[in-house]
Amino acid sequence: MVKVSIIGATGYAGVELVRLLALHSEVELMFLTSQTYSGQKIQDVYPHLRGFVDKELREQNIEEIAEGSDLVFLALPHGHAVAVAEKVLKMGKKVIDLGADLRFRDTKTYEAWYKVSHENPVLSRDAVYGLPEINRNRIKEAQAVGNPGCYPTSAVLALYPLIRQNIVDVKTIIIDSKSGVSGAGRGLVLGSLYPECAESVKAYNVGKHRHTPEIEQILSELAGTDVTVSFTPHLIPMTRGILSTVYAGLTCAAKDIDIEGLYRTCYRDEYFVRVQPKGVWPQTKWVTGTNFCDIGVDIDARTNRVVVTAVIDNLVKGAAGQAVQNMNLMFGIPEKTGLDLVPLYP
Ligand SMILES: NC(=O)C1=CN([C@@H]2O[C@H](COP(=O)(O)OP(=O)(O)OC[C@H]3O[C@@H](n4cnc5c(N)ncnc54)[C@H](OP(=O)(O)O)[C@@H]3O)[C@@H](O)[C@H]2O)C=CC1
Ligand SMILES: CC(=O)N[C@@H](CCC(=O)OP(=O)(O)O)C(=O)O
């Protein structure tokens, strides 16, 4: 059994990890931490876990936690992970950060967009970006993984087959995303209050969302050239789910491309990416509670642009599920373990 602990177990991402790991056959849950609720049992803070997990929430004593764990998940606000990751790694244990602190090869970019200083550029440079569909072999060898952001997971999986085949003009990419409110976390945020967001949809952080440089970093690495994207996130009144619609101009004639075949070939061995038949556009409900990313794709022959939609559950493939998938890879556990779930529908 792999011994795992979660720092920040009471946030939405952390508690989703607890849910998935509670029934994971190869894992033993060791320590769960919380600042606010330390001393209480997690099943008292989150009664849906009663009967599955019986654990007291602890303070963040990292040495003790790392000593008793093989892997530590960090589900903290950005800016808090580096110091913890350093201690865990120093004790020879592995770490997966669900936040943004280990996602950037160039920490100057991180500092510019996140407005916090990064104390360990080497740690960030050596960490592996944890998108298994692209980085599987490197994740298997990793000591530290930066788990991708929720919007970038959907956008990069939507674009990867196009970039890999070099059939779109990378200066024309537009990413239009909608997220459920749990993406903002459990903290009290005015915009997450029911009267503020119910029966309403809005764009936010237009042209300046922190996931823009993350998407550009990965697409640039894949394309071998600098890629810039127009990315606009929207808040939509639902709890879970992200839908990203991506547009890109083709560099060849539409008639020369079997677009569905291209996506099927690219993802043929990827259990968690489900390419829909041409003309079928997935909805967020098709993936709720699971690690799937469902993709719909077609070419708009009139404009010679590809249109792709990708849906994920932001808390699963966008956070905790992807983290479990990465853990499985890092410990040689079959990749689907703990994640072989049927979506919740309707
Ligand atoms: N929500 C989502 O869909 C996704 C979230 N993420 C990332 O995962 C991380 C956690 O997000 P999420 O769960 O949504 O956030 P929440 O606000 O729901 O939870 C934050 C967690 O961090 C703990 N915490 C807060 N401040 C501190 C601090 N100063 N020191 C130690 N612990 C602290 C909280 O503990 P407590 O309240 O018990 O004191 C809580 O457990 C973030 O980096 C986020 O960006 C990534 C992808 C998707
Ligand atoms: C709806 C909503 O507010 N979503 C969050 C998602 C960010 C997130 O989860 O941050 P990381 O993935 O980078 O850690 C936001 O836009 O800030």
TrEMBL record:
EC category: oxidoreductase
InterPro entries in the cross-refs: AGPR, AGPR_AS, AGPR_dimerisation_dom, AGPR_type-1, NAD(P)-bd_dom_sf, Semialdehyde_DH_NAD-bd
Cellular compartments per GO CC: cytoplasm
Active site annotation, chain numbering: C150
Residue stretches making up the Semialdehyde dehydrogenase NAD-binding domain: 3-142
Pfam families hit by this protein: Semialdhyde_dh, Semialdhyde_dhC_1
Highest taxon of source: Bacteria
Reactions the enzyme catalyzes: N-acetyl-L-glutamate 5-semialdehyde + phosphate + NADP(+) = N-acetyl-L-glutamyl 5-phosphate + NADPH + H(+)
EC number from the UniProt entry: 1.2.1.38
PROSITE patterns noted in UniProt: ARGC
GO biological process: L-arginine biosynthetic process
Entry's localization field: Cytoplasm
Keywords: Amino-acid biosynthesis, Arginine biosynthesis, Cytoplasm, NADP, Oxidoreductase
Pathway: Amino-acid biosynthesis; L-arginine biosynthesis; N(2)-acetyl-L-ornithine from L-glutamate: step 3/4
Function description: Catalyzes the NADPH-dependent reduction of N-acetyl-5-glutamyl phosphate to yield N-acetyl-L-glutamate 5-semialdehyde.
Family according to the record: Belongs to the NAGSA dehydrogenase family. Type 1 subfamily.
Name this protein carries in UniProt: N-acetyl-gamma-glutamyl-phosphate reductase
Origin species: Formimonas warabiya
Lineage start: Bacteria, Bacillati, Bacillota, Clostridia, Eubacteriales
